[in-house]
Amino acid sequence: MQPTFIPVEQPFDLLILLILGHFLADFPLQGDKMAVEKCPGKDVTLDWRWWLSAHAGTHGLVVSVLTGIPLLGVAEMISHGLIDFGKCRLGYKLIIDQSLHWGCKLIWVACVVAIR
After folding, report:
1. How many whole angstroms separate alpha carbon 23 and alpha carbon 29?
2. Predicted TM-score of the model (pTM)
3. What is the pLDDT of residues 47-66, one digit of tens each?
4. Helices (DSSP H) in the chain: which residue ranges?
5. For the CA atoms of 33, 38, 40, 41, what is the dihedral angle to 10 degrees?
């Protein structure tokens, strides 16, 4: 298993860090242009696929660093991209979007607990 930059002993502590990392990647690290142009049909300066991939990849990096498990980072990148794509297409509310993302964080913590 890969070492983490931030050693976390308790699952609840890891969950808190993952959620805080999520807020960092979802709000300050996602600029207004990315937030708009990651949706199909709203892209102007760059194809939406690049915007969405970059945004989801940022989330994947946060999860990889905090868990020390790059495969969970890949899983986060995929799930985050799918959730955000769904929000663009289906127009569900922010609370649904964030609940789905937080649900993924619970799954990643469960995976870490099972692996360790």
Report:
1. 9
2. 0.91
3. 999 999 999 999 999 999 99
4. 11-26, 32-37, 48-67, 70-90, 94-115
5. 0
